[in-house]
Here is the input.
Amino acid sequence: MPEISRFFGIIIAMYYDDHAPPHFHAKYGEYEITVSIADGAVVGNFPARAKGLVIEWLHRHKDDLSANWVRAENHQPLQRISPLE
Here is the structure.
């Protein structure tokens, strides 16, 4: 699972050859969610505060995430994306 960011104990990753629509994975302890880049739709279970942080991060980095999705589809190295601080 290529990690692209990490903040407040949350790990953000994208998989190569993952299914559409464009999305990323977030892991926090034993919790894991999948988040749509286009609309922020969440599949999975996450604590409310951590989920809010992930959605805030998504809104700040939507263009970077979209670019990384294209890189993943083309089997190119993914770029790190700055964390929330």
